[in-house]
Structures are given as C-alpha cells and as structure tokens.
Design brief:
The structure holds two protein chains of two kinds. By secondary structure, chain A is mainly alpha-helical. Chain A has twelve helices and one strand. Chain A has one domain. In chain A, helix 2 packs across helix 6. By secondary structure, chain B is of the alpha/beta class. Among the domains of chain B are: 59-107 and 184-258, 3-Layer(aba) Sandwich (Rossmann fold), CATH 3.40.50.300; 266-399, Coagulation Factor XIII, Chain A, domain 1 (Distorted Sandwich), CATH 2.70.50.60. Chain B contains nine helices and 20 strands. Chain B has a six-stranded mixed β-sheet, sandwiched between helices. Chain B has a five-stranded mixed β-sheet with strand order 12-20-19-15-16, with no helix packed on it. In chain B, strands 10-11-13-18 form a four-stranded antiparallel β-sheet, with no helix packed on it. In chain B, a hairpin with a 4-residue loop joins strand 15 and strand 16 (333-338). Classes of the chains: A mainly alpha, B alpha/beta. The interface between A and B is large, with 44 and 50 residues. Strand 1 (13-16) of chain A pairs antiparallel with strand 4 (99-105) of chain B.
C-alpha cells in the first residue's frame, strides 16, 4: 500500500452505528479530505464559465454594471451621500464582500441538493460540498478585486478627478475582513444547505432573502445614515461589520466603528458554530432524505 | 493476517416511506406536525400503540450479522428490495444504520454506481481527477496512476473532450477505470457489471479477479449468477431484509435460485417489492400457462406455452415496452423479447394509455432443453427510463419427455433443444 492514501493504516477501524444526540463536529475529517474541497471548488469555478462566450469576464461585468446602475439611481437620482469618496468607489468597495456573500449563499444553499447523486452513492464528509462552494466564490472575488484596483487607478490619474487614494496601515487589516466575510458566508451557507435537503422552501426563500438582505446592508448608502440608537441592532447583520470594515480598511472613511464591528463579528461566529452543529446533526439523514 | 475485516452485528435499517414519496417535506408540514405532536402523544398513550409499527415504516434490513475475514470475496444475492443495496450503503458509510453496528478495518472503496460525481461539462482528464478525489484518492496518487487509468479506459483521443460528448460506452469505461484503480483494503461493488457491452463486462470481471487475487476483501452484489459463481467463494442470501442463508457460493446460488418461488407458475408482486420510482408502472403478476391454459410450473418441451405479464398504468407512458428475459438457473441469458419488437405494433402503440393490461406471448414447442429456467421482467422506455425490472420473477421446469433425441437417456448440452430437419443422404 502506498503511504499517501487516505486512512492508510491497517489499524484504521471504523465503527458504524446509529448516532444519537448532538453529533461531534469532527472537523478532522474535513482536513483529511482537504484535497477534495479544493477539487470541488475548482470544479465549481470551471463549470461556472464553461460554454459561455465571455467566460470569466462575467465576474468583471456583473459588479461593474451593478455599480454603474447604483451610481445612477442612488447617487444621481436619490442623492445619497458617500462620505466624501466618489460614489462609484464608495459603492464598489461594499459590492466586493457583498458579491462574495450573496453568490456563495445562493450557490452553497443549493449545493447539497445539486450534488445529490454523489451524496446517495459515496461516502465523503458532506461538509466539503458547501465549503467548496463558498471557497469557489473567492475566485470571482479576486477578479472583482482586480477591477477595484483599476477603478482606484482611474480616479487617481484621470485629469479632472479630485480623488486620491492614500495608502494607510489600515490596508493591512483587509485580510481580517475577508476572513470575517467568509465566516459569515459559511455560517449562513451551512444553515441553508442543510435545511434545503429537508425543506425545499429554501430554494424559494433565497432570492428574496438576498434582495432584502442587500438593502439591510450599507451598500448603496452609508451606515451613518442609521441613527445612533439603532446602530448596535443594525450591526446584528454580520455583513454590516464586513462592509464597514472594508470601507475603513480600503478608503479610510471615518474611524473604525469598533462596537459595531465586534457585534457583527460575534454574530458571524455564532452563525458559523451553530451552522456547523446543525449541519452535523442533519448530516446523518442526508442520504435518506435528499 | 487472517483476521476479521468486517464484523456486522444485528444491523438494521428502517425507512420511513411517505404516502406520496414525490413530495418533499415543507416547513408547513413541520409546523403542523409540531402542533399535532402533543395531541398524538396523548392519543398514543391512551391507545398504547407502538409508534414504530406504522404503515409508513419499512425495515429494509433487519438483524443482519456476519463476519468477513481478510482477503475473502463475499457474494451477496437477493431479489429486488431484499436489502442488498441498503447493506452496501451502510457499509460504505453513505447512510447510518438504525440499529446495530458494523466494524470495518481499513479503507473502504465503494462502487455503488460508476461515474458518480462525473460532471458532464468537464473533460475526461478533469473528471479523472475529480472522481478520484471523491472516491478518496490523493492528487499524487491519481497522477501516478493517470496513464494506467487512461489506457484501461481506451479513451486516449478524447481525454480533453467534455464527457457530455462521450458515447455511453466510453463514459462507462472511463468511470470504471477510475474506480478500479482505487486501492482500498475493502472493495464494495454493486451491480456495475449490469451495464455496458460484453467486452466492457469481460474487462470489469478481469479487473475484479485481479483485485481479488491481490488478497483484498470484496463484497460483491450481482444478479448475474455466473459472475457470482466465478468471483466469489462464499455467498449470503438476503430476503426481505433478512439474512436467510450463508454457504459456499455454489450451494448458496442453488438455494437462492430454487427458493422463494411462491405460487406454482405464477408470481404476484406485493407493494413493498415494487420500487417507488416504478410509478406510473405497477407490475401485478407474471404467469406461465400450458397449451390447455392451465397455470403450471412444468412444461413438456414438445408443447408450446404462454407467458403473461399483467400490469397497470396510472398514467399513459410514451414508448413503453414490456418484455421478458429467459435465463438458465445459473443466470445465463437464453433470449430477450419485448411486446413491441414487431415494428408495426411499435408504430401503433407509441403511447400506452393508462389502464390495466396483460402482455402475453407464446413460446413455441421444441425450443428449450430440459432443466429449470428463470423469467425476468423488464418494463422500460428505451433510453428514457427503466420503470421496473425483476430479474428473478418466476421459475419453471421443462421436461423433455418425447423431445428429439430422447431415445438416448443422456443429458444434452446447451439450453436449447430444437427439432431440426435432418436429412441423411447416401452419396
């Protein structure tokens, strides 16, 4: 036997019996199958743009068009403030994490059901499917981020632009906010993907939930529009913290709203942990119920 | 190291079957059930009924215990719905048992269906890596075996073509090739040999015997008795979720083929024997009648007999064909015939309306040799769906008294015994 195989020793003993009560999280399984997670996300990325004429250009077009539309409606027509930053930049900075979140929530929410033929035929840790689905969103996020750099450069060097991008130490904290975005996304995705196995209602909820959630998140407007006494409740939406973090880190808009951020991060972590527990508990009947 | 690699103890699996299995549970159902639960609990307490014995609950497996020593090739046979697939699903960790336990030493590779996890948009190369990863192989391991896998599958020229453009034969070969190069200590195989052409099946069988000779443990489910006889040393027989027999394969196959044929010359299907996805097709019964119209289980080979398949359709089905397969006791096919084989009939009956039907045909005299035969039933729409399949529907015996050549009391080789017009010319 080659040494590089999964559970590779003869000593490996698996006991199969009915489990009761709260399931163990057993994240080691996920680590053992980490290559499968990468393969599945790689598959999701490949398949997303196969047989499309524009290919990965779609990852550029979607947020760009959204930004243009929002600029026309909310900045020109509705006259919302953008904290002294050109509205397109202000808006696009929020669309970056929002795009990651909304896409992953919708893809991952349906991921288990879409892969039902695998789930009913082969054993592998079921967690790999929604996790891979969320991770595959990072590729689109990366592409959208390149566009972001392009927009910044344009505003810096366009002849009649009044905006200059300043590099601050806050930029170094950006990875933390990306991780926070992933934690929130994964938490929500685990809940929806597992629930969708049993309740197909999830498929109907997701589109309009996405829409509502969009307006509950400070994407087209600034969170300073929300009055002081509601700020903490507003921060229960984990995306609020993520978006504010992105704006603070990338644009240096006002000071970091620490309490708001802590509440959002707390909610995101709670979502992830409860999502994992829920997923694990539902997992044992996936093959029978799906 | 002749120790036990699989130890199964009192294993059972219970399924809830809904009244209409098509419908998914909705949130509303849960909410309604939540409100009703306390009321039902009260009712149950008063009537003292056991909640587990309801009309919607079936035990797919019950009280199964067995051990498999390392290096053994164990066959598993049983009719449709006997619980074979459920057993393999539990042992390959796809689903959990309801009661009992199983201990497994070593990596389990399951071949419950070849090509699972293949994505039609991805190329052959991409699918090899993906499928390998799903089956539990590491990237380096797949990389090392890549050329071998491609060579085995014989799809070299198309390796960078999306598999949706493959013929079904190519698709199967590639899928089996990946799975066959997995190197688990325990291989679980469910009926992969039922698909593909003869050449492919020969290749699969060859690969399976290689694996067996390397001393790995194999659990092999098949309806093909000659494959079971060729590959396995010992076989267990499942019937309605119970383990009813375990013996060296030859004995177990004889037991299985001979046992369980209820009514003489007639077999009716009970609702739990009919898989849910057979709808809207409901098989009712298969019968054999002699030339006088009697339902019997023994025929003279010198007389014709009639085979009837009775069924009902809840909805009309386009392109439905109902047919029979005639097999020997060892599972070798003698012939296949469908009720729409005649092209003019086929044109007339393109859509079969809902209703109650009997499709019957006459097997002419002087076709079958003496011995025991098995009839299998297949109801399908070609390349669309196989509604129902029972490869062990009914057995009958042929008596060759008075058949050509019977003046010599010797067994004649082969399943057919035609009366040929011999001419002896003296030159």
């Amino acid at each position: 036997m080659a040494a590089d195989q999964l559970p590779n020793s003869h000593e490996d003993l698996i006991i199969l019996k009915p489990t009761h009560g709260l399931a163990a999280l057993n994240l080691r399984d996920l680590w053992v199958y980490r290559e499968l997670v990468l393969f599945l996300s790689w598959r999701d990325v490949l398949v997303r743009y196969k047989q499309t004429a524009l290919g990965a250009t779609w990852a550029i077009i979607q947020p760009l068009v959204q930004m243009v539309v929002f600029t026309l409606i909310f900045s020109r027509a509705a006259g919302l403030s953008s904290e002294g930053v050109p509205y397109p930049i202000f808006n696009y900075t929020a669309l970056l994490p929002w795009g990651l979140f909304s896409k992953a929530m919708n893809d991952a929410g349906r991921s288990l059901v879409n892969n039902r033929n695998m789930i009913t035929k082969i054993y592998f840790p079921r967690l790999t499917i929604p996790v891979a689905s969320v991770l595959s969103g990072l590729v689109d996020f990366g592409i959208a981020f390149l566009v972001y750099i392009g927009i910044i450069l344009y505003y810096n060097f366009a002849p009649n632009s009044t905006y200059t991008f300043t590099v601050t130490p806050a930029l170094l904290t950006l990875p933390l906010f990306i991780i926070l975005a992933l934690v929130a996304t994964l938490g929500v995705s685990l809940w929806f993907s597992a629930a969708n196995v049993i309740y197909r209602d999830v498929g109907h909820i997701l589109p309009f939930l996405t829409q509502t959630w969009f307006f509950l998140t400070p994407i087209v407007y600034s969170s300073s529009e929300i009055s002081k006494q509601w700020q903490i409740i507003y921060a229960l939406n984990p995306l609020t913290g993520v978006v504010e973090g992105f704006r603070w880190s990338l644009l240096g808009i006002h000071s970091l709203p620490l309490p708001l951020l802590l509440v959002s991060a707390g909610v995101a972590v709670v979502l992830l942990i409860t999502g994992l527990i829920y997923f694990r508990n539902m997992e044992r009947t996936f093959a029978d119920e799906i | 190291m002749n120790d036990t690699v699989i130890h199964v103890e009192n294993l059972g699996k219970r399924y809830r079957i809904g009244v209409s299995p098509e419908r998914y549970k909705t949130l509303r159902d849960t909410i309604v059930a939540g409100f009703n639960a306390p009321i039902q609990k009260l009712r149950q307490r008063s009537s003292n009924s056991l909640s587990s014995i309801g009309p919607n609950i079936i035990w797919a497996l019950r009280d199964i215990s067995f051990d498999v020593p390392r290096g053994k090739v164990l066959g598993i046979v049983g009719r449709n719905g006997a619980g074979k697939s459920t057993l393999l699903k539990i042992l390959s960790r796809v689903t959990e048992p309801t009661v009992g336990s199983a201990e497994i030493h070593g990596r389990v590779g399951a071949l419950l269906e070849v090509g699972t996890g293949f994505h039609p948009e991805l190329t052959g190369r991409e699918n090899i890596y993906l499928n390998g990863a799903i089956l539990g192989m590491k990237r380096v391991e797949i990389g090392r075996k890549f050329n071998e896998i491609v060579a085995f599958s014989e799809v070299e020229q198309f390796i960078d073509t999306p598999v949706k453009r493959y013929s079904s034969g190519m698709y199967l070969r590639l899928a089996f090739a990946v799975a066959a190069h997995l190197e688990p200590e325990i291989l679980v195989v469910d009926e992969v040999l039922a698909v593909g052409d003869a050449e492919f099946q020969r290749k699969c069988m060859g690969k399976m015997s290689d694996v067996a000779q390397e001393g790995r443990t194999i659990l092999f489910v098949s309806h093909n008795m000659s494959a079971i006889l060729r590959l396995t040393e010992e076989t267990i027989v499942l019937d309605k979720g119970n383990l009813v027999f375990r013996a060296p394969t030859a004995q177990a196959v004889d037991y299985y083929m001979a046992a369980g044929f209820s009514g003489l010359g007639e077999r009716a299907w009970t609702p739990e024997e009919i898989p849910a996805d057979a709808a809207p097709f409901t098989p009712l019964a298969i019968r054999v009648r002699d030339s006088k119209g009697q339902i019997v289980d023994t025929f003279r080979s010198t007389e014709p007999f009639r085979v009837e398949v009775e069924y009902s359709l809840d909805q009309s089905i386009t392109g439905l064909r109902v047919g029979i397969y005639l097999l020997t006791m060892r599972g070798e096919y003698v012939f296949t015939s469908f009720d729409l084989d005649d092209p003019t009939q086929f044109d007339k009956l393109g859509i079969r309306q809902e209703g109650h039907y009997i499709s019957h045909c006459t097997i002419p005299e002087n076709i079958l040799n003496e011995g025991q035969y098995v009839l299998a039933v297949n109801a399908s729409s070609f390349r669309v769906k196989r509604y129902f399949w029972d490869d062990h529907a009914l057995a009958f015996t042929v008596d060759a008294t008075g058949a050509p050549g019977k003046q010599w009391p010797e067994p004649r080789m082969g399943p057919i015994r035609p009366a040929l017009d011999w001419v002896i010319e003296r030159l």
